[in-house]
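User: Let's play a game. I give you a shape written as tokens, and you guess the letters that built it. Ready? Here's round one.
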């Protein structure tokens, strides 16, 4: 096998998307790849925004290079999907490892197919126990949940913890978290560490125990046990359920100082959980952070990439929060990439096994075809039906 694929060159480019500060390999993971026999090329300055200096990559065994390596490398690992122009520069048959969100990138998927690129889409990695160490959605959501609370605290007009001082007592901030998945649980934990009083709601009753184990209160909504699918994800809630949830949480939101929304349904627009009138009911100076803003938003008044003030409430719609904590976000992301690729490196060659459940699950394009059924159906619905 190694003869078919003599010594693989792995290229780590500088991210080109505006505001992206992360990098797909740190000096630590580069050293691990080099130890496995890969030749690692790092574009000059690729890690600088994440505080990983060129000299550290060189010490780890990487060769610093320019953007030419786009067209000569056997494998490329990056954070954001390549632009169409970048995809056009890839060497035919090379392996691309990055996040893709294929349903929003159909033109790119088509270009990768036409370019005979083997694309492993990190956001398609099956969420099975064995793949937890490779799960970028989880590692980056953890960072988003943490940063959401810090942003909320920064914009809040009051303190978070209970303070008893000679000048009087400051009551703790009340926080309501919508969605107790990976980001929501980290938001709860962070808010608790800041001394906030936290309540949370989710459509999956399984989240109750996790919420309570973090010292927060779970807001039970009747019918919640029906809404977890066999993979542990949320199913779309009915209008009737959302109404019941709204009644249950409305009073708490009106009293809250911070509301963090993280509710998502895979492949769907995010549910509207904080409508205009709920924002209007909130106290002057309170803060909403909408982590679902890029998939439609849980709050009707949040705007992607903006911080707005409506009815006296600051609504934070900042996108790509992991990029605001680039060192650790890159650290975790690059360990996810290493965990994905390492089992397939032998004698300096990266040779993927398409029988492997994880590789098969995240292979978006391979051998000039789209190998992810849902995406293939989006690109040629008639062909798939036939
Ligand atoms: P997500 O980002 O898709 O959604 C965030 C949360 O929003 C979920 O908890 C969901 O139930 C909730 N939600 C959806 N609609 C809602 C509504 N109307 N009201 C309130 N909440 C609503 O989910 P996620 O954080 O990526 O993970 C969801 C589940 O997957 C969790 O159980 C998690 O433990 C599990 N998971 C498993 C693995 C693994 O085994 N590899 C990895 C990651 C996550």
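Assistant: Ready! My guess for every position:
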């Amino acid at each position: 096998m190694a003869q078919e694929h003599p010594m693989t060159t792995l290229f780590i480019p500088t991210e080109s998307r505006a505001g992206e500060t992360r990098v797909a390999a740190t000096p630590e993971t580069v050293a691990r790849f080099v130890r496995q026999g890969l030749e690692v090329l790092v574009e000059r300055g690729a890690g600088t925004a994440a505080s990983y200096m060129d000299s550290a990559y060189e010490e780890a065994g990487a060769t610093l290079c320019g953007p030419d390596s786009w067209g000569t490398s056997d494998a490329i690992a990056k954070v954001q999907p390549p632009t169409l122009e970048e995809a056009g520069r890839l060497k035919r048959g090379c392996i691309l490892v990055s996040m893709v969100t294929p349903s929003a990138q159909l033109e790119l998927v088509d270009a990768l197919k036409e370019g005979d690129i083997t694309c492993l889409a990190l956001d398609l990695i099956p969420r099975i126990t064995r793949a937890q160490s490779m799960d970028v959605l989880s590692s980056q959501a953890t960072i988003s949940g943490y940063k959401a609370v810090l942003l909320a605290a920064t914009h809040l007009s009051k303190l978070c913890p209970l303070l008893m001082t000679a000048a009087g007592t400051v009551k703790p901030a009340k926080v309501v978290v919508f969605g107790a998945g990976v980001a929501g649980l980290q938001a709860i934990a962070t808010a608790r560490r800041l001394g906030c009083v936290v309540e949370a709601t989710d459509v999956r009753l399984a989240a109750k125990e996790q919420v309570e184990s973090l010292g927060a209160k779970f807001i039970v909504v009747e019918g919640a046990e029906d809404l977890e699918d066999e993979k542990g994800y949320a199913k779309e809630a009915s209008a009737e359920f959302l109404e019941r949830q709204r009644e249950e949480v409305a009073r708490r939101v009106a009293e809250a100082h911070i509301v963090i929304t993280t509710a998502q349904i895979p492949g769907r627009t995010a549910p509207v959980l904080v409508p205009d009138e709920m924002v209007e009911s909130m106290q002057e100076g309170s803060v909403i952070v909408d982590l679902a803003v890029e998939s439609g938003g849980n709050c009707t008044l949040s705007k992607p990439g903006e911080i707005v003030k409506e009815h006296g409430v600051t609504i934070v719609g900042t996108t790509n929060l992991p990029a605001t904590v680039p060192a650790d976000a890159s650290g975790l992301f690059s360990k996810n990439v290493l965990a994905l690729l390492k089992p397939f490196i032998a004698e300096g060659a990266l040779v993927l096994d398409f029988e492997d459940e994880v590789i098969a699950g995240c292979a978006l394009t391979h051998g000039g075809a789209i190998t992810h059924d849902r995406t293939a159906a989006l690109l040629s619905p008639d062909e798939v039906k036939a």
